[in-house]
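Many introductory courses stop at the sequence. We go one step further.
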Amino acid sequence: MEKALTYRKLIVIGIFLAVGLIFIVRLFYVQILVDKYILSANNNVLRYITQYPARGLIFDRNGKLLVYNEAAYDLMVIPRQAKNVDTLELCRLLSIDKEEYIRRLTRARAYSPYRQSVFEAQITRGNYGFLEEKLFRFQGFFVQLRTLRKYTYPIAAHAFGYIGEVSPDIIEANAYYKSGDYIGVNGIEKSYEEVLRGEKGMKIRVVDVLNRDKGSFQGGKYDTMAYAGTNLYSSMDEELQEYGERLMMNKKGSIVAIEPSTGEVLCLVTSPSYDPNLLVGNIRRKNYRALLFDTIYQPLFNRALMAMYPPGSTFKLVDALVGQQEGVLFPSTTYGCPGGFSIGNGKMVGCHSHPSPLNLIGAIQISCNTYFCRVFRSIIDNKIYLNTRQAYEQWRKEVMSFGLGKKLGLDVPGEVNGNIPTPAYYDRYHGKDRWRSMTIISLGIGQGEIGITPLQMANLAATISNRGWYYTPHIIRAIGKKDSINPGFRDKKITAVNTAYYDIVVEGMADVVTAGTARASKIDSIDFCGKTGTAQNPQGKNHSIFIAFAPKLNSKIAISVVVENAGYGAEWAAPIASLMIEKYLKRKVKRKDLEDRIMNTDIIHGIYKKDESGKGRFLPD
């Protein structure tokens, strides 16, 4: 009996505890979770508006604003709420027909009848004014503030890159992005996307049945702030970039300039190019297609990073350094030139007429093919190695220590490796152990299978000016206000060639400009060093190439210029490089006649014309 009473007592206590617990839980739910309940229950009258942050700005090395933001608007739609819409008026405002309206609404409904999606993207501020005053007539539609990228100067399109709508693959891989978001697609915009994009926020607004905004939900209690992206400070010099693009107008090729002491890229010119503002806003898709399918000029192709050329005679500098390192070449080494280098069977690597014999400095100054064929042969036939393959592998290793034949690591996407052929390549082509120095002799003068990008050429010039080292080239020098860049950009790369062997090569390059193949491009009061190159082109006229640095000591600029189908290096590439050097070091150019000739010659079409005033101008064929 006593046990039964105790059991009943426990049951009663348990009931009271259970009821009390229910009241406590309910009280917690009402007081703590009620707002979230209301938030969920009112989805049909609440509008969730993403607050897109302003992307970070981009400045040049002197503080000039290069890339900024401008307000734009996306017209959003929630298909389930799109009722009693004045479709004719909306179509008129958007300059679309009713069929296009139906197609877009069907696409949005297929995405989700209940969730918002973009109906018309990136409406400009001017056009938005006409839409805003009539928005109440389009139930289910609303406007979301966005920003467009704008470019202060119509330059450096390939360096900046552009932004575009995220793909489904990106959305699936990265939870940050949602449908309708934008992302850096190329250039700096892509490389520094996470820095530039900032952090999105969210605002919740109450909307009545007439599509009118009635204010913040719960006084903005559940809103979140957007945080702007971080500004970037580039190493580019706006004036130098703009000047380079004018010099390369109506020419195919590139100009790359680097500050040797830091690895900072001063300009990255690729030509033909385009105005980066063409890929902004709702005109981007149309313009992108036009640029993409322009197979004649290929304006989207970044020649500075993606084109590979035989370096021609500029590569003789590398063999001059490697030959000394290998102990088969000395400053006093002298070879005669009978007009070319015989490779047997009546074949010859030709050479131009010049004084003979020559020592190392003279051979660089005059750019003697015979001399450097003999240098290359002495490297590959060096008796300290067991066979040709072993000697070639050592030569290749030393060549690649200059950053050739591999990506340098520039902080702009698209860079290619270039090509310093492997022994395996020659095994496949000639047969294993069936090739010798004479088989591959064209490598000695920068021809044959060698492929080098303009960026690598400029870096080679920087490396020689530094007497044997370089920093990874980079285009962003600071993130935000701090000097915070990739630590790898401060990692000094040392070549496999001893520093002691560079001065003699530098002397030869100085003589190239004062009395050698580029003497027509010398600059008063600036002692600069250079090397001409003429790259053979099976598809047409040879490519004109020149690399240089200035001043001779404590260089401030190293540069490469490639002008496709333009002939000798001294004819076009060398004068362009000298004008660029003068512009950068003096900030103005005195040689106006040379400048006029370069700017007013259309090499693509082979024309130079002047108008009635005597000034040069470009005219169609």
